[in-house]
């Protein structure tokens, strides 16, 4: 601060040291001072905003010699220049400090001897300029009020200036009261105006005057001002700041009525400094009698005090402050609470007790949440000051405990978070205010209330506030009062409670481990949080209840569960939904140990459906809750009769086809658990009735249903079927896989429309089937059959694995779009997870595949042992087969069968080609534009390479190093700036090159700025590196890959446009220039064949084919950009016949686009051609015609009509032909000729009055 004040002071003295006050007034705004001065003052204003003006004010210089130059600087400011408001603000604060000089100001006033005009003296000018700034709408008003209060509270300002300002203030307040009455009489709403800001400034100044002025001198003004400010408060309370300032003024007027004193009845705890308490002196002192009087704990124990006169006007002040506690704005309530604390500490005990009673009246059910909040703040303020006597605590503590859980419904939400936060502040204040002996009777209630708020409050700030209050109580009141306080604080600290899920499900269980708090936690969850208005809180409360079952199973089963069962059909949606969720989680945790309530639990679904609670408002969440209940009942393995099982299955089926995805997912989860636990099968598989009821029904819906919601749900249902229903024989498994593969195809339609969610769910179902039945014999399961024989499930055969892989590879190319955007990304994300699952299962099932198969085999090596293993390893497999044969013969007491003598060679489900395709597709997705897809692909690739370490990875070491996917490292794959710099390095691996380039081209040519910027920068850096290292082979391969993509995705705008943008970027950055490709040939780079470069001609043919018949402006623009890049390479001098033919073809194509039917296209082509000619003058055959060609381009209206009209004498076609002649471009006669309208297709001039709209317009004239 000194580094800002000192140079500012020097500049003020240098600029205004010789300037008199009269001169500063006359030259107002003519000399605002140097700019550096305003910079210093602006920085000071910023510090005042951050640190507070009271702190900054003390750091200004306060020498008498600085007063006049500072005032002159302020007077010279141009008030119309609002950009320099911070300078005026800082100068006013500076003046407020300088005005406190301990001398009579007249003795340092240079104008007092030279001028007889009292209005121009120093004091008058300070007061005048400060009063003029009281109507400022910004922070200057505050600085002006502070400056005025500093001047007017000086001892030499008692007469004259002070009386004048008080009269002026009274007139402003009277005018404000009259204005408000006029506005109310007209039925208008008051608004912000200069008068409003002036009133704020005056009130602010008065508050400072009554605060810092001599009480005896300001008593004469109290009576006259009190009536006026009451009228202003009652009639003009539309502005928050004005109400806050009025409350501040009320409290200062109130403190003026009463003398400053320390009331003897105040509660004094004694030494509350931890440092003093821990010092040796404190220990010694504690062993001796305390010199402090014992604190009063009841009304009778209060020390007698002398009678003090309390003016009746003080009652009006207290009433206004109590009204302020109800204000709708927090700042007003907080100011009122502090004001009540300041006034109460000067009152006699009886009056103070009346104030406490008035505050307690605000804790009423009829009062608003604002009143509760203000009352809490006031109680905390009284407790901090020792004004809340202990005999009041038995009545106050229950109210505070109630306020800790205050939550009032307002429509779909609730209010009360600020009340709960303030109640925690009261608990914090109590911990610091009262001794442990006083608080001991109330500790149990307060501790439980604070803990429940810390664990289960919806808002993070309330949980943390409760935790802080609990910590303060444990520290101040002692661990003896708060049982297990230290242990609880260790687990439920400030940061841990920030996670709401963890607070509900983990920390609550730890705290409930202490029996003292267990019943309170269970009761709060059961009676409050389980019926909360927020569905997320109800879900967390049910999970928390389920986790608490282990601590008291009997109480949960006999009391809680019984109570919740009685509420499943409650009229209130929140109650019945929470009850069902609570029952579900308790049943899951209890298991089969609910025999007393077994019948009632299994009857819940029937009761809910009989009451038709699925209908109407809230029916969706009830469906979800019932599905969760069915799932938990199944997981708990409760015995159910067959009729009930079928009834539950019908309920789940009805929810599976619901349009809301979350309900469908919940129903599928319930179906999975239900079918796994119930519906037994025979050794030959399920009965025909069960098979048709489940599998055939679901398959038929998926394949034939026109309702998209049904196909989505039942596709997931097929995937969740247990092995006993879907893999009881190879034919059934093959049927399911074939159906899902068919429905996952991008061409599959639901009704007449494709449905991305159905395809996605089919892929998810395939993933679940792979997880359930496994590959080969890897996950064979055995089920006890109803015919007392075992059913052995089958796994996926090699043919099915290959079919699923093929389907997934096709699904990875799903880029379908609709009005929601890239819906195909949902399918691709599901496919990425499916590919990972199937790859791991296939690798694990390939017993003949070495886990550490070398990467050179994947890259095309000849070493067979790397795949099949060494001779010793193959002999070990053979020995294992022989041992299995002998063991089977001995166990069956029968000779070896023929098939045993010829053991099968283990199937290999994963090979080199599959590995390359899988990793290539993942790398392609990793290089694409969507952040979520990149993130998923990157994490899957990391797991496959480093965690699971699948074999047959081509160039594993190089790929791992390029992507930095080392074990233990975490990477934000969604970040474009980091991902693309890594994926570009893997582009040098031949087998992955095309896949990466395809994904990268989509990103480079995309629309997202961050993705385009990062991917383009990475690609250009790679090109520069290759050119520096003379990696011509890689550059040539990049060009061939881009040409291959253009051919592969011909007429596919999703790929063609990004590829063209990528080609344009590379050509612009000289990555695919002809001279570079010629240099590659001269260096005899590999894979560069032929004497002539084929990239340009080939790409030109491709873009001509794309431009033919295209109506997409976006594609045509991309084509034009690439074409112009070729134009910039034209150089007629020294070109052979083949090059000239190529150049002619380029220009002919560009001139064909100059005659395009779209005016926007013609205009864009002309603009780009002009730029290309500026960059490359050699594109014109005859240099002498270069200027004429440029003039024709500039002077022609290329977005005009193609042929001449009445308004346009020369058409675009003529201009185009003229330009072609100048540039030496040969156009065909057909292109040059005027188009003739086909017979019978002549354009008929439209009658302007032929339309109804024209008729209406004419009539309207």
TrEMBL record:
Alphabetical list of Pfam families matching this protein: ARM_TBCD, ARM_TBCD_2nd, TFCD_C
Occurrences of domain Tubulin-folding cofactor D ARM repeats (ranges): 241-486
Keyword Chaperone found: yes
Domain Tubulin-folding cofactor D C-terminal: 918-1115
Superkingdom: Eukaryota
HEAT repeat ranges per the UniProt record: 317-354
Record GO biological process: microtubule cytoskeleton organization; post-chaperonin tubulin folding pathway; tubulin complex assembly
Gene3D superfamilies in the cross-refs: Leucine-rich Repeat Variant
Ranges for region Disordered: 282-306
Sorted UniProt keywords: Chaperone
GO function terms (MF aspect): beta-tubulin binding; GTPase activator activity
Name assigned to this protein: Tubulin-specific chaperone D
Keyword Ligase: no
Phylogenetic classification of the source organism: Eukaryota, Sar, Stramenopiles, Ochrophyta, Bolidophyceae
């Amino acid at each position: 601060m000194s580094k800002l004040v000192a140079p500012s002071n020097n500049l003020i003295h240098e600029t205004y040291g010789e300037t008199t006050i009269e001169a500063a007034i006359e030259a107002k705004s003519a000399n605002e001072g140097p700019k550096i001065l305003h910079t210093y003052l602006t920085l000071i204003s910023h510090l005042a905003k951050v640190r507070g003006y009271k702190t900054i004010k003390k750091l200004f210089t306060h020498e008498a010699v600085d007063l006049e130059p500072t005032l002159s600087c302020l007077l010279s400011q141009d008030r119309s220049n609002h950009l320099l408001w911070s300078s005026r603000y800082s100068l006013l604060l500076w003046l407020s400090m300088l005005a406190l000089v301990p001398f009579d100001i007249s003795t340092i006033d240079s104008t007092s001897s030279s001028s007889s005009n009292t209005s121009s003296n120093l004091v008058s000018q300070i007061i005048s300029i400060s009063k003029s700034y009281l109507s400022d709408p910004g922070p200057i008003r505050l600085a002006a009020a502070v400056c005025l209060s500093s001047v007017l509270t000086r001892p030499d300002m008692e007469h004259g200036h002070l009386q004048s300002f008080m009269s002026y203030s009274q007139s402003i307040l009277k005018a404000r009261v009259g204005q408000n009455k006029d506005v109310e009489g007209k039925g208008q709403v008051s608004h912000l105006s200069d008068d409003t800001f002036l009133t704020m400034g005056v009130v602010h100044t008065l508050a400072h005057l009554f605060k810092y002025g001599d009480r005896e001198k300001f008593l004469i003004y109290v009576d006259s001002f009190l009536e006026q400010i009451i009228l202003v408060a009652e009639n003009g309370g539309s502005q928050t700041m004005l109400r806050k300032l009025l409350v501040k003024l009320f409290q200062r007027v109130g403190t003026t009525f009463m003398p400053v004193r320390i009331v003897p009845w105040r509660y004094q705890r004694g030494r509350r400094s931890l440092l003093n308490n821990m010092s040796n002196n404190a220990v010694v002192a504690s062993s001796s009698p305390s010199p402090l009087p014992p604190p009063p704990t009841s009304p009778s124990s209060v020390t007698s005090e002398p009678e003090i006169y309390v003016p009746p006007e003080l009652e009006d002040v207290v009433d206004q402050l109590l009204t302020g506690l109800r204000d709708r704005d927090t700042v007003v309530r907080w100011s009122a609470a502090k004001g009540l604390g300041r006034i109460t500490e000067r009152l006699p005990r009886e009056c103070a007790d009346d104030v406490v009673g008035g505050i307690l009246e605000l804790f009423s059910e009829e009062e608003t949440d604002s009143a509760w909040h203000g009352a809490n703040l006031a109680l905390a303020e009284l407790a901090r000051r020792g004004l809340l006597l202990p005999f009041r605590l038995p009545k106050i503590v229950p109210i505070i405990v109630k306020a800790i859980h205050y939550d009032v419904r307002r429509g779909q939400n609730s209010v009360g978070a600020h009340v709960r936060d303030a109640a925690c502040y009261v608990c914090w204040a109590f911990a610091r205010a009262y001794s442990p002996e006083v608080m001991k009777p109330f500790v149990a209630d307060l501790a439980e209330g604070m803990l429940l708020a810390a664990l289960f409050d919806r808002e993070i700030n309330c949980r943390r506030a409760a935790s802080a209050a609990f910590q303060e109580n444990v520290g101040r009141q002692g661990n003896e009062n708060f049982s297990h306080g230290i242990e609880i604080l260790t687990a439920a600290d400030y940061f841990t409670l920030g996670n709401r899920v963890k607070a509900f499900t983990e920390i609550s269980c730890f705290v409930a481990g202490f029996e003292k708090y267990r019943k309170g936690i269970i009761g709060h969850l059961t009676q409050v949080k389980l019926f909360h208005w927020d569905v997320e809180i109800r879900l967390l409360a049910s999970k928390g209840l389920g986790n608490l079952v282990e601590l008291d199973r009997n109480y949960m089963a006999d009391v809680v569960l019984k109570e919740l069962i009685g509420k499943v059909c409650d009229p209130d949606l929140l109650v019945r939904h929470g009850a069902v969720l609570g029952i579900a989680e308790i049943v899951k945790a209890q298991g089969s140990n609910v025999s007393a309530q077994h019948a009632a639990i299994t009857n819940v679904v029937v009761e809910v459906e009989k009451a038709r609670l699925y209908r109407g408002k809230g029916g969706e969440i009830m469906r979800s809750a019932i599905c969760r209940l069915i799932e938990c009942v199944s997981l708990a393995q409760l015995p159910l009769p067959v009729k009930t099982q079928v009834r539950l299955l019908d309920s789940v089926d009805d929810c599976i086809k619901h349009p809301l995805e979350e309900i469908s997912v919940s129903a599928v989860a319930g179906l999975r658990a239900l079918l796994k636990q119930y519906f037994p099968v025979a050794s030959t598989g399920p009965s025909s009735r069960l098979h048709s009821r489940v599998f055939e029904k679901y398959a038929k819906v998926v394949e034939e249903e026109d309702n998209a919601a049904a196909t989505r749900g039942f596709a997931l249902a097929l995937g969740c079927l247990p092995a006993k229903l879907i893999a009881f024989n190879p034919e059934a498994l093959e049927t399911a896989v074939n159906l899902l593969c068919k429905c996952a195809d991008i061409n599959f339609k639901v009704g007449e429309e494709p449905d991305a969610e159905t395809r996605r769910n089919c892929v998810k179902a395939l993933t679940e089937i792979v997880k359930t039945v496994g590959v080969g014999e890897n996950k064979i399961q055995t089920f006890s059959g109803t015919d007392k024989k075992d059913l052995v499930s089958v796994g996926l055969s090699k043919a099915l694995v290959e079919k699923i892989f093929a389907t997934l590879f096709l699904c990875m190319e799903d880029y379908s779009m609709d009005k929601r955007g890239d819906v195909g990304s949902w399918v691709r994300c599901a496919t990425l997870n499916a590919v990972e699952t199937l790859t791991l299962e296939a690798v694990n099932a390939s017993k003949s595949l070495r886990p550490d198969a070398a990467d050179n085999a994947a890259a095309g090596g000849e070493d067979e042992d790397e795949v099949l293993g060494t001779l010793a390893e193959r002999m070990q497999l053979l020995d294992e087969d022989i041992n299995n044969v002998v063991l089977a013969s001995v166990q069956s007491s029968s000779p070896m069968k023929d098939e045993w003598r010829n053991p099968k060679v283990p199937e290999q489900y994963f090979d080199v080609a599959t590995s390359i395709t899988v990793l290539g597709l993942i790398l392609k997705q990793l290089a694409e534009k969507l952040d979520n897809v990149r993130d998923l692909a990157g994490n899957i690739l990391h797991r496959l390479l480093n965690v699971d370490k699948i074999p047959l990875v081509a160039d594993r070491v190089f790929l791992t190093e390029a992507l930095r996917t080392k074990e233990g490292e975490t990477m934000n794959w969604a970040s474009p700036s980091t991902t693309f710099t890594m994926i570009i390095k893997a582009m040098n691996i031949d087998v992955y090159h095309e896949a990466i380039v395809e994904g990268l081209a989509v990103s480079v040519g995309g629309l997202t700025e961050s993705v385009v910027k990062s991917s383009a920068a990475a690609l250009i850096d790679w090109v520069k590196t290759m050119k520096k290292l003379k990696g011509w082979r890689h550059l040539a391969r990049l060009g061939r890959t881009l040409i291959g993509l253009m051919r592969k995705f011909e007429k596919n705008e999703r790929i063609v446009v990004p590829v063209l943008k990528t080609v344009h970027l590379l050509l612009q950055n000289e990555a695919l220039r002809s001279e570079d490709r010629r240099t590659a040939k001269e260096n005899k780079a590999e894979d560069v064949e032929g004497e002539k470069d084929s990239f340009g001609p080939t790409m030109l043919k491709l873009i001509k084919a794309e431009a033919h018949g295209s109506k997409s402006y976006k594609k045509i623009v991309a084509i034009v950009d690439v074409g112009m890049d070729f134009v910039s390479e034209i150089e007629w001098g020294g070109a052979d016949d083949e090059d000239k033919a190529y150049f002619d073809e380029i220009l002919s194509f560009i001139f064909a686009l100059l005659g395009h039917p779209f005016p926007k296209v013609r205009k864009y082509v002309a603009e780009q051609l002009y730029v290309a000619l500026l960059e490359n003058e050699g594109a014109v055959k005859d240099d002498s015609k270069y200027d004429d060609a440029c003039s024709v381009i500039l002077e022609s209206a290329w977005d005009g009509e193609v042929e001449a009209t009445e308004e346009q004498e020369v058409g675009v076609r003529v201009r185009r032909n003229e330009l072609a002649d100048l540039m030496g471009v040969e156009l065909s006669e057909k292109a040059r000729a005027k188009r003739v309208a086909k017979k019978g297709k002549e354009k008929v001039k439209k009658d302007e009055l032929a339309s109804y709209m024209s008729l209406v317009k004419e009539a309207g004239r």
